[in-house]
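Dear Dr. L.,

I hope this message finds you well. Following up on our conversation about the binding site, I have prepared a predicted three-dimensional model of the protein together with zinc ion. For your records, I am including the exact sequence and ligand specification that went into the calculation, followed by the structure tokens. Please feel free to forward this to your student if that is useful.
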Amino acid sequence: MELFRAHIIDVPGDPLRGTAGLRAIEDGALAIDAGRIIDLGNYTELTARFPQAMQHDWSGATLLPGMIDIHVHFPQLPVIGSMGLPLLSWLSERTLPAEAALDNEAAARDAARRFLRSLAANGTTGALVFGSHIAAAQEAFFQEAADSGLRICSGLALGDRELPAPLLRSADQCYRESRELIKRWHNKRGVRYALTPRFSVSCSEAVLEVCGALMREQRDLLFQSHINENQDEIALVRRQFPWADDYFATYERYGLTGRCSVYAHNLHPAPDECERMAAAQVAVAHCPSSNAFLGSGSFPMQQHLKCGMRFAVASDVGGGTGFSLFKEGLAAYEMQRQRDDGVALDPAALLYLVTGAPAAILGMGDHVGSLDPGMLADFVIVAPASDGTLAAVLDAVTTPEQRLGALFTLAREECIAATYVGGREIYRRSG
Ligand SMILES: [Zn+2]
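The resulting structure of the complex is given below.
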């Protein structure tokens, strides 16, 4: 048994729908055993209750549930910061050529290691990861993911048009390569498989049909794709699928819906489209820094709430500006502040959108996403340098809300001291 001493903050319910707010324990402790949380409370009381526990003294630091990123691209780390382009040119000029560079195993393995380390170094303990179009690169990614200790869901990116030649695969190849990787990796070594057609722009009806067939063959697969990110993209989809009333109809026809389906962006949905997505129980990954960086638009969060759509905040590296979900929380907050119909997000809502909300969307809400006793011990220690701006702000805070607001505003990769998954330390800041 182990005891972690720190200021503890989590959100056991859904503050956006009024079921709970922050749970905060100043100078608290988290007791874990065999990879699970067995108790949390005041440090002095828990020390008395578990006198034999091995102690980890993080006093002064903040302990939060591990964060979960439901939209992030494995091959795109090197293109973070590619400025000056809207979505379709950013893809064709910068991103897809970089993705094509993972055509040898050494490059793919190195990219996978750096990517996974970046997740852990930012306090992210689980992720739904958009994979490579290259099957050997995706196999290398799965191997590294299984070794990383992180909770990873991912899949081979699929497309048979509007891609550079090295990334194009026929519908038949998409089917065979996906099926092989599903067989090798779905529910193996902590990995889950997510069927991953890139977006309707790059997928003919034959590829979408193949995706529907794979979803019917293996009913517990996750699913991920993109939708309604950029007006030029939406216009292109309209030309490619003249029979479709809207973007979602191109997925709907092939049965690519359900509770474990995650669509990134959805910045420009038609009212009826949003209603149908919610009724189909799909979820949306809201990626605010990417949306701002690529000039794609602003997220209609109020519309999503009114429809009853589930959503969480995600990084969308490399359209997004880095792996920090604190940064994304701040960007989401700022984006809503700019909108006439913006949702008033408070620190509890931000923490929920990067912990409990994504956990539930990925079907892991009974195991991770909060610090309730019985949950798996996925958590992160946030400890800024004592001589920095954040430490100075934290010295002045008087409430847990203020503490958390300061973390979302100022804490970044360098403030993550350690990351734990299932009670195992998978990342420790050096120095
Ligand atoms: Zn994306």
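In brief: The mean pLDDT is 97.

With kind regards,
A. P.
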